[in-house]
Amino acid sequence: MNSKTIQKMQCFRDKVCSIVTASMNRAFDEKISREHFVVLIDEITMDGIWGTHPYNPELESFFNMEHVISIHQEMELDPSNPEHVQMIKEYEEKIGEELKPDIKPPAHTQEETPSEEPEGGVTFVDIENLEALAESTKRASELS
Fold it and tell me: What is the pTM of this model?
């Protein structure tokens, strides 16, 4: 990867993104995939991508650039935004169940007073299509 690409990738810093990596011999369900491959990007270098987990900023991950196939910014849905509420409702109708957020905002954005319901957005990741996207991206890069 060249320095111009790394420079352009800086647009992902401080955003929640899915990192698609080369295949590994391990299967993950959707929640574990989010926990492993969806991060708040802290740093992107020639060596790789550093990120913290949106639900727990104490957990960090590093993705070696040689294994990164693609990076995708995720849309964070805010339950206080009426448009986002509609999107969540439509998704719940599609899957036939109510969603419970499992991603919390970083500690530095949470209010001092504890609440029973986490505040902030919910990040949705379509894991089923992520593997197909990774394979398609990998084939396209091999052709170029």
Answer: 0.59
